[in-house]
Specification:
Blueprint lengths: L7 E5 H13 L6 E5 L1 H6 L2 H10 L4 E4 L2 H9 L6 E3 L7 H6 L3 E4 L2 H13 L5 E6 L14 H8 L5 E7 L11 H18 L8 E3 L3 H6 L7 E4 L10 H4 L6 E6 L2 E5 L4 E2 L5 E2 L4 E6 L17 E4 L2 E6 L7 E4 L10 E5 L5 H7 L4 H6 L6 E5 L1
Parallel strand pairs: 1-19, 2-3, 2-9, 3-4, 4-5, 5-6, 6-7, 7-8
Antiparallel strand pairs: 1-10, 10-18, 11-14, 12-13, 14-17, 15-16, 15-18, 16-17
Helix pairs in contact: 1-3
The structure holds pyridoxal-5'-phosphate.
C-alpha cells in the first residue's frame, strides 16, 4: 500500500495473480485462459496487466479495438491478441501488428479476406464469432453455409477459433437461456466440424460463465472482470482481491453551520453543524455526477463518508462529521476495503462501468 499525496489508482499485480489462480482453479486442467484487457484493462493499466499475465503464462489476450492491441504490441507483448470488434478501416494496421480479428458478419469476413489478399497472407489466424442469443455481434447459425462457402479454398485465412458470448451468465434466473446458448453453440461447432483441416478452439464463457456454467468451458474461457477482482457474485467476490484501488487525499476541511449549502447549485444544505472535506477528483476523473447527493460514499480511516451535493469536474465534497481525520489524510473511493461493486450499486450501475470510467488524468501506480 502506498501513501497517496494526490489522486492515484493503485494497481496491485499480486491481487491479479491471486485472481488468475482462483479462476484457473475453477477450470479443467486443459482449458486455456484468455485474459480480456480491453478498455485499458478495465480502467487499470493495460501494459502492466498484460506483462504480468504474460509472465504468468496466459494463453491469449483480447481487446475490443485494433488500437488497443497495437499498443500492447508496441510494448513487446508477443502472446496472441484477439480483437473482438475490429472495424474494416483498421485491417491494414491489424495485420501489420499481427493481431487476430473476430470476424462476425459477411461484410467483415469479405473485407478481411480482401485485406489479407492485398498483403499476401497465407493462413492468417482469424476467429469466427457466432450469435447464440445475445443479438449483438456474430454470424447466425443459418449463416454456416455461407461461411463454409467463403472459407473453402481460401488460402489467406486460417480459422483458429470459433466463439460466442453468453447474454446473462451472471443472472441465476436465466439458467435455461444460458443452457440453450451452450446447446446452440455446440450445434454450430458440429455443423462446421467437417470443414477444418485443423480443428479450431471453441470458447464461450466470460467470468460469470466460468463460475456458473463449467460445462460450457470447451477449449478456452475469456475472463475480464474476475481478473480485476469482481465476479457479479458477492460470495465469490470475497475470494477475489481488488486489483485497482482509487485513492486520494483530503485537500481541505470546512466546518459549516446549519443552513449553509455546499457546492454548485447549492445542492446540499447542512441540517446542522457539519464538518466537510473537499477531495481532488471529480467527474472528469470518472466519479460521475450520479454519485453525488449521497449516492456514493468514500472511506476515510475505515469509516464511510457520503458524497454531498453535486460532483464537480475536478472536485467533490464529502461529509466527515464524526470521522476523526485531517487535511492530507488518505481517502479510498473504491478498491481494497471499499468494493467497487458496492459503490457502483449506489448509482444503480455495475463495477465494470465504474472501473472503466477512471480517466487517464488519474496517475496509475503499479504495486508488483
Ligand atoms: C468483455 C468480454 C468478455 C469478458 O467478460 P467479463 O464478464 O469481464 O469476464 C468476454 N467475452 C467478450 C466477447 C467480451 O466482450
Amino acid at each position: 500500500m502506498s501513501d497517496p499525496k494526490e489522486t492515484i489508482l493503485e494497481i496491485d499485480l499480486g491481487a491479479l495473480e491471486h485472481n488468475y489462480h482462483f479462476l484457473k482453479s475453477r477450470l479443467n486442467p486443459n482449458t486455456k485462459f484468455l485474459a480480456v484487457v480491453k478498455a485499458f484493462a478495465y480502467g487499470s493499466e493495460a501494459i502492466a496487466i498484460a506483462k504480468k499475465m504474460e509472465a504468468l503464462g496466459v494463453d491469449y489476450f483480447a481487446v475490443a479495438y485494433t488500437k488497443e492491441g497495437a499498443i500492447l504490441r508496441d510494448q513487446g507483448i508477443t502472446t496472441p491478441i484477439l480483437v473482438l470488434h475490429p472495424q474494416p478501416v483498421n485491417f491494414p494496421e491489424l495485420i501489420d501488428r499481427c493481431l487476430e480479428p473476430s470476424l462476425y458478419s459477411a461484410r467483415v469476413l469479405k473485407a478481411f479476406m480482401e485485406a489479407a489478399k492485398d498483403s499476401h497472407q497465407t493462413d492468417y489466424p482469424v476467429h469466427l464469432k457466432f450469435n447464440t442469443g445475445l443479438n449483438r455481434l456474430g454470424f447466425w447459425e443459418n449463416d454456416v453455409a455461407h461461411v463454409t462457402a467463403r472459407l473453402k479454398d481460401c488460402k489467406e485465412l486460417k480459422v483458429v477459433s470459433l466463439f460466442s458470448h453468453l447474454a446473462a451468465s451472471d443472472d441465476v434466473t436465466e439458467g435455461a437461456f444460458n443452457k440453450r446458448q451452450i446447446e446452440r453453440f455446440t450445434a454450430i461447432t458440429k455443423k462446421l466440424e467437417n470443414i477444418w483441416e485443423h480443428k479450431p478452439m471453441y470458447h464461450l464463457l466470460n467470468t460469470s460463465g466460468i463460475l456458473n456454467y463449467p460445462e460450457g468451458q470447451f477449449d478456452m474461457v475469456r475472463s475480464g472482470i474476475g481478473l480485476y477482482g469482481y465476479s457479479n457474485d458477492p460470495s465469490i467476490d470475497k475470494k477475489l482481491k481488488a486489483v485497482g484501488t482509487l485513492k486520494t487525499v483530503i485537500s481541505q476541511i470546512h466546518n459549516i453551520a446549519a443552513e449553509e449549502t455546499v457546492g454548485y447549485n447549492r445542492a446540499y444544505t447542512a441540517p446542522g453543524f457539519r464538518k466537510i472535506a473537499t477531495l481532488p477528483l471529480g467527474h472528469a476523473d470518472g466519479i460521475g455526477r450520479i454519485y453525488g447527493n449521497a449516492r456514493g460514499t468514500v472511506m476515510i480511516n475505515g469509516k464511510q463518508a457520503p458524497i454531498i451535493g453535486n460532483v464537480c469536474m475536478d472536485m467533490l465534497m464529502v461529509d466527515i462529521t464524526g470521522i476523526p481525520c485531517q487535511e492530507g489524510d488518505e481517502v479510498v473511493l473504491f478498491g481494497k476495503g471499499h468494493s467497487a461493486e458496492e459503490v457502483a450499486a449506489g448509482a444503480s450501475t455495475i463495477s465494470y462501468e465504474l472501473l472503466t470510467g477512471i480517466s487517464q488524468r488519474v496517475k496509475r501506480i503499479i504495486l508488483s
